[in-house]
Prior knowledge:
Elements: E1 2-9, E2 16-20, H1 22-26, E3 29-33, E4 39-43, E5 54-57, E6 62-67, E7 70-77, H2 80-92, E8 97-100, E9 103-107, H3 113-121, E10 125-132
Parallel strand pairs: 1-4, 2-6
Antiparallel strand pairs: 1-5, 3-4, 5-6, 7-9, 7-10, 8-9
Amino acid sequence: MIKKVVEIKKDIKANDEVELSWFDMQKPNLTAVSNKAVNFIIKAKFTHLHEDDILVAEDGYAIKVKRSEDNIYVFEFTDALNFAKVAYEIGNRHQPVMISDMNITVLDDISLVDIIEAAYKNDDIKITKTTGYFKANGKAHHSH
């Protein structure tokens, strides 16, 4: 049976937990399976979910939202021109980014394959595929 989440609360006791990726936490409509194998569906009234939100189902069953690590790529640049070019290309794909000093971190996404392949061929860019907690800068992944 699929549980329907009817509200989101904070600071109440949960019966269960679910680990969600950054991208899944941005979705207004989501189906997922909790750690105790409970299927649930949510239609968020807000823009997205946050870590430690408590999803309360119609029957009172409460599921705490936890962050999972994401598959990410970290680009490290030695010069501003390559940094700007890659940032421009990623921006044209409307992908969320984490930007820090001469670094850009992106989620592993099929729309970035050509940019990632080009970066691997560029000796002035170090690229690392890893897992980690993604937190986009600004109002990433918004709609127009």
